[in-house]
Amino acid sequence: MEGFSPDRYSVESAAKQSSISSGGRNQDRKEFLRRFVDSEILKANLKDWFEDIAKRNMSPAFDVPFELIDLQKFDYALEGIQFQQLIRMPSAIYASTSSNVEGNAYLALEDFLHTSVNSLWEAFWGHENDLMPFYVSSLYEGNMRFYQAEKAIAKGKVGGLCASAIMLKNPRHPQGKWDDIVELALLRPDVGSLASVEDDSKPRLSIMGDALFLALRVLLSRSISRSNIPLSLNSVFVLLVDSQNGSVLIVEGDLNKLEVDLNNVYESAAAWFKDHSQIAISPVDRIWNKLGNANWGDIAALQVLYATFHSIMQYAGMPKNTIEDLAADHSSRLQTRRIERQLGDTRVNGNNGLLRFQHRNASPEIVEVQEESIKVDSEKSVKLEVGNVLLVEDSSWQNGYRINEVLNDGEIPFYIASSVEDPGNALFLYVGSHPSQLEPAWEDMKLWYQVQRQTKVLSVMRQKGLSNKYLPQLTASGRIVHPGPCRKPSSGRNCDHPWCGTPVLVTSPVGRTVADMVRAGQFGADEAIRCCHDCLSALSASASAGIRHGDIRPENIICVKSGLRQLYYVLVGWGHAILEERDRPALNLHFSSTSALQEGKLCPASDAESLVYMLYFSSGGDLPVLDSVEGALEWRETSWSRRLIQQKLGDISAVLKAFADYVDSLCGTPYPVDYEIWLRRLRRHIREEGSGKEVDTSG
C-alpha cells in the first residue's frame, strides 16, 4: 500500500479547496447576475459619483478609447474595403411615411452591425470559404433575452427592445446567451441631443449608466461561462447610438475585485465601477446622414468600426491581414491616383516655396534660395542635405543644428547632426511631419511614431529618472523656426509657412545600426553576446519604470564607439513603446513576439523574445519569407518546437542558447524576465578585445 504523503495531501487539499472556492465564486456571481436586473437602481447608486465628476469640471471627464493616429492608420487600412448598409436608418425625412420608426431603427441598426462585422471579418480574418462566426440580434428588456428585430416586430415586442448586439454563433443556444455577446449597441432616441458641449460632446451620464449596466452584465456572464472564452476578455465595448449620432464606450476591469454582496448587488457594482474599472468614451458625432446612410469614412463611424475590430480580435485573435499590412497599400493607391490625374512633382508654393538652410564658416546663416535641394510638399516630409542648418526652438530656447550626414532606416530619413554651439558632439536628429497635413501619407504616420511619440516616451523616461548608458538620451525637442516673419494667428495655430510648427527630436548617442553591421559582415559572436547584454540592461531599466519597447529589430539597435576599442549597444526607436495598457506594439512578421502577433499586446517576456529573434536572424539564421500573421506564428511554433533557434544561437555561444531556452519557457506566461541573473551570466562572457579582461558593463 502506498504510504501517506503530507506534501501530496497538502497539494491535493489545496487544489480541492481552490476548486471549491472557484465553484463557490461562480455560484455567487451567478446569483449576483440573477439579481442584477434594474439599470435604474444602478444609476441611483452611481448618481453621487456622476455628480462629483461633473463638479470637478474635468475636461474630458473620461479618457477617449482611441488615439487619432491609430484611427488614421485604420482609416487607410479600410480604403479597399466595401461597407454597404441596405436598410436605411430612419430620421426626420422618413417620419411622415413610416408608421413604425422604432422598429425600422432596430432593423437598420442590425443591418449596420451586420455589414460592419461581416466586412471586417472578410477583410482581416476570413478566407472566401470561411463562414463568419458572428450574427446580430437585439435585446428584449422584459426578459433579458435576444430576438432578431424582425421577429420581435412580428411578435409585437419592438417596444421592449433596448439594445442590439454582435453575437458569437452558438449551436447549442441558437437564440444567444449573454456570454456570447461580442459587442453591444445601445439605441436611445436622445444620444445626440443629450450630449453636453461643456463635457466635450460626451453623452450624458444617464445614458452612460444604462451602458455600464449592460457592460457589467456581459463581463459577469463571461466570468461564469462554461464556454471556451479567453481569460483576457475583461473588457467590453458598448456603442451608444440614436438615429443620427453615435459614441463608443469601453469598460475594462478585473472582476476578481468585485465584492459580491448578494444583499446589496447594486452598491457592490457601483463600488466596482468607482474603484476598479477603467472607462473611456468618445465624443458624440454623426454616423448617419439625413437619408439614413452611414458616413463610413467619417470619424464617428470609423470609431465604431475600430471598436468592432477590437471586439472581433478578442475572440478571433490577431487578424491574418494586419492593419499595417492593409494600410501600407495607401501609398501605392495614392501614387496611382496621382498618375490618373497626370500629376508630376508638385510643390506647395512653386519654386518660391523651396527653402534651403546653409552653414557658412563658423556662424550659421539661414538664407532663402531658389533651389530644389529641399522639397516640401503636402505628401512628403521635410528633406535636408548635408550642410543645412536647422534652427529649433521650444518654449524657452533656440538652438541651431548642422546636418552632417543623411541616413535612412529603409523607410524614412533621419540625420546625424551637431549643435552649432558644440560641433564636436554628434547627435541623431529626426524631423517629423508638418502638423497641418490633414491627409498625411503612410510615411508620415511612421514619422509621428519616430518623432512625436518617441519624444513623449523619452520625456517620460527622463521624468522617472531613468539613467542607463544603453538607453538613448533626450537632448532636445522642439519645432523648426522658419526664415522670415511668422504670421501665427492669435489662436496659437501655425502660420501658413510650410515648415511652421514641424516637430524635431534630437537624441544621443550616435552609432551604426546592427542592420548595417550585419550587411557589412561585422556582427559576430562577440558582438552578439555584448548586444544581448546591453539590450537586456536597457530593457531592465525601462521595465523598472513600467515601460516596454515593443519594436526590437536590427534597425533599432545601434553600436556606439567609446574610446579606441570600447563598443557598446544602445536600444533606440522607442516610438512604439508601451506606457499604458491601451498602447499597442509595432507588428513585424520577423521580429514581433508571439503575444504581439496573436493578441496585439506584449507579455512580460515579449521584448526578450523579440531580442532572441533579432540575434537569431542577425547571426545568420534562415530568414523565412513571411506574408501573413498566420505564417509568422506557424514559423515561430515550428522553430521553437524543433529547437532551430536554440541550435543556431548555440553555434555562437552556450550562454545565448541557454538564454533562448529560458525565453522559450516564459513566452506567453505572466512571469517577468529575471534580468539580473542573465546580465551576470552574459557579463562573464564579455571580454575586452585583446586583453582577456572582463569589461565594465555597468550602466
What are its keywords?
Transferase(Phosphotransferase), domain 1; six-stranded antiparallel beta barrel; Phosphorylase Kinase, domain 1; globular; 19 helices; alpha+beta
From the alpha-carbon coordinates, what is the Rg to the nearest angstrom? 29 Å
Instruction: Supply the helix-strand structural class.
Output: alpha+beta
Largest sheet: 8 strands, mixed
* Percentage of residues in strands: 15-25%
Number of helices: 19
Average pLDDT works out at 81
Helicity range: 25-40%
Number of strands: 20
Enumerate the spans where pLDDT stays under 50 for 5 or more consecutive residues.
1-21, 93-99, 196-200, 344-380, 688-698
The general outline is globular
* Count of distinct structural domains: 3
Question: How far is it from the N-terminal to the C-terminal residue, by CA?
Answer: 60 Å
Question: What is the gist of this entry?
Answer:
The protein has 699 residues and is of the alpha+beta class.
Explain how this protein is built.
With 699 residues, the chain is of the alpha+beta class. The protein has three domains: 36-324, no CATH class; 348-510, Phosphorylase Kinase, domain 1 (2-Layer Sandwich); 518-699, Transferase(Phosphotransferase), domain 1. Helices cover 38% and strands 18% of the residues. The protein has helices at 6-35, 39-56, 68-77, 101-125, 149-154, 205-223, 265-276, 299-316, 323-327, 329-340, 442-463, 514-519, 525-544, 594-599, 606-618, 629-641, 644-652, 654-666, 675-683, and strands spanning 134-140, 145-147, 161-168, 181-187, 235-241, 245-253, 277-281, 285-286, 348-351, 356-360, 363-367, 389-393, 398-408, 413-419, 422-431, 473-480, 503-508, 512-513, 557-562, 566-571. Strands 1, 2, 3, 4, 5, 6, 7 and 8 form an eight-stranded mixed β-sheet that branches. A six-stranded antiparallel beta barrel has the order 12-13-14-15-17-16. A three-stranded antiparallel β-sheet has the order 18-19-20. A hairpin with a 2-residue loop joins strand 14 (413-419) and strand 15. Helix 4 packs across helix 8 (299-316) and helix 17 (644-652) packs antiparallel against helix 18 (654-666). It is globular and about 85 Å long.
